[in-house]
Design a protein that fits this description.
This protein is α+β, with helices and mostly antiparallel strands. The protein contains 15 helices and 21 strands. Residues 95-324 form the GAF domain.
Length: 565
């Protein structure tokens, strides 16, 4: 207790032991109980001497096997568990157990070493969660929607609400949400239509969720006469405190679901629409089996708050997925499907996008035929990710094709491309939009098969690799020039001799840059790969990409290989 005098700290610990209303117990890394306070004994009736030195299954009550598994999981993963229901049997003639809310957290010392797991237990009144609803909803904000992935968010909602609210929970999303598309179904306007749903999340007090008829990702059957359709049509939650399959006419059309209800003793049902900004995203279903208490309005209110929070996360994830898919489709549509070197060169290209969490980048490449049988080779990289980077890449790619038609020297081509880039940035600023990309790099090279010379200019871009017929690989020391968008100096043009059979490799920095490594390490790796030889340039490109330390890479990778004929 930093900042508290030693004597006061001891008094505070004694108060936790004797006067606290929170039940506390601590198990060490061997799952032996090493500390317990008086409140816990008052709550579950187990004396301290019966608990100390014993495992959770021997020192708790109720479903002790599952509780010990939970303690073991918290110890192994470090992920705390909150709101776990802990039921204590009361008098033999009582019809109901006493309910508590238990939370579990892993303990560490000042050096980060694991000490064990602490359980904190609070009394829950008959009006469950009424007093700490705000705390539960706040905790859900940290546990649900941790990523921009709709399927994972749905699973997090299911995991968080079992057994907090229900013994079995399913989350089904419309197909449009799963694919990141714009949902077509407005809330409460299904008009008898059944949207296509897929199971996105499921959780149960039983391992493996055996109650579920569908695995995650599978299409879910929704009977037209079921209460699920009632929720879709009305846009309002449905509280069904007592679920009796013998009195539910709609189950006659759904025998598989009826069998599951009977097998697992499902006796209480709560169905909520998942919607955000007026659009239907899916349906969440809460069921009670082993918990004998029927759902009530307090349960419904808490479930609505948790689902509403999750719905915003799901909609944000859907929008992100849509933007990412749009950017990826845009980038792929702007890159050449195939490259041709004509009679001047044999060419091959490889493009490897960064992983989905990093987004879509602005790499591009091109091969352009010029008068006199010459060939222009282009590789560029727009800084940034997403739709803006892909769109800027596309505009620069079209601009450089137009400039190539003017048959200008490489340095002049980059100078004019620089001006184009500056105008694009200014247009974005004047339009009031967020400028997501502020610079770009590019290499523009022109190969003349008559002289076997290559003239090129760099705009802040890595120099190419040259592999001569003898197998030696070098990275010529060329003037790099400033990145596009600076607009201060012209771009100097350099010239390379490429004897017959020489190989030229143009690439973006994603191929050679490695985290926590000097760029020279990446250059040597690529150089070794280029000199190993291959039956074709296509195979060589695949071999070079295969040397990347991580796949997918943290940044987009582009490689353009060209060999004189």
């Amino acid at each position: 207790m930093s900042g508290i005098p030693e004597g006061e700290a001891g008094a505070a610990l004694r108060a936790l032991l004797t006067d606290s209303v929170v039940g506390l117990a601590v198990w060490d890394t061997g799952l032996r109980c090493v500390w317990v306070n008086d409140a816990l004994e008052r709550y579950d009736g187990i004396a301290r001497e019966r608990r100390l030195g014993r495992r959770p299954r021997e020192s708790l009550t109720g479903d002790t096997g599952e509780l010990e598994a939970l303690v073991r999981r918290v110890l192994a993963t470090g992920r705390c568990v909150t709101g776990r229901e802990y039921r204590v049997p009361t008098a033999p003639d009582s019809r109901r157990d006493r309910a508590f809310s238990a939370s579990f957290v892993r303990l560490h010392d000042d050096g980060g070493h694991i000490l064990g797991v602490c359980m904190l237990m609070l009394v829950v009144t008959d009006r469950r969660w009424a007093g700490d609803r705000l705390a539960v909803v706040s905790e859900a904000g940290t546990r649900v929607g941790t990523t921009l992935d709709v399927m994972r968010t749905a699973q997090e909602l299911a995991d968080f609400t079992v057994p907090l609210i229900a013994d079995y929970v399913t989350v089904d999303l419309t197909e449009a949400v799963r694919l990141g598309e714009e949902p077509l179904d407005r809330l409460g306007r299904s008009q008898g239509r059944v949207p296509k749903f897929r199971r996105a999340g499921r959780a149960s007090v039983h391992a493996g969720s055996p109650e579920s008829l569908w695995l995650n990702g599978e299409v879910v059957y929704v009977p037209e006469t079921s209460p699920f359709m009632q929720v879709l049509s009305s846009g309002r939650p449905l509280l069904h405190p007592v679920l009796d399959p013998s009195h539910e006419a709609w189950l006659a059309d759904d025998p598989a679901r009826a069998a599951k209800i009977r097998e697992f003793g499902m006796h209480s049902l709560l169905i909520l629409p998942i919607h955000a900004r007026g659009v239907l995203l899916g349906v969440a279903v809460f069921v009670r089996t082993s918990n004998p208490t029927p759902f009530d309005d307090n349960d419904r209110l808490l479930a609505e708050e948790l689902v509403a929070r999750a719905a915003l996360s799901l909609d944000n994830a859907r929008r992100y997925t849509r933007e990412h898919n749009t950017a990826l489709a845009l980038q792929r549509s702007l890159l050449p499907r195939r490259v041709h070197g004509g009679t001047a060169m044999e060419v091959a290209a490889r493009y490897l996008p960064a992983d989905a969490e990093e987004g879509v980048g602005g790499d591009w490449f091109d091969v352009i035929g010029l008068p006199g049988g010459r060939l222009a080779l282009v590789v560029g990289d727009v800084v940034g990710h997403g739709v803006n980077a892909a769109a800027t890449m596309g505009r620069l790619g079209m601009a450089i094709r137009t400039l190539a038609d003017l048959d200008l020297p490489p340095g002049e081509v980059l100078t004019r491309l620089d001006r184009t880039f500056i105008r694009l940035t200014e247009d974005e600023e004047e339009g009031g939009g967020e400028v997501a990309t502020m610079s770009a790099t590019c290499v523009y090279a022109v190969y003349d098969p008559a002289t076997r010379r290559c003239t090129l200019a760099l705009a802040g871009h890595p120099p190419p690799a040259v592999v001569h017929r003898g197998g030696d690989c070098s990275f010529p020391d060329l003037p790099h020039g400033l990145p596009l968008g600076v607009g201060l100096l012209p771009f100097p043009t350099a010239e390379l001799e490429l004897p017959a059979g020489s190989l030229l490799a143009l690439f973006t920095d994603g191929l050679v840059e490695e985290r926590d490594q000097d760029i020279e390490v990446g250059l040597r790796r690529v150089g070794r790969a280029l000199t190993r030889g291959a039956s074709s340039l296509e195979d060589l490109g695949t071999a070079v990409i295969g040397t990347l330390p991580a796949t997918p890479p943290p940044d987009d990778v582009t490689l353009l290989l060209a060999r004189g004929l």
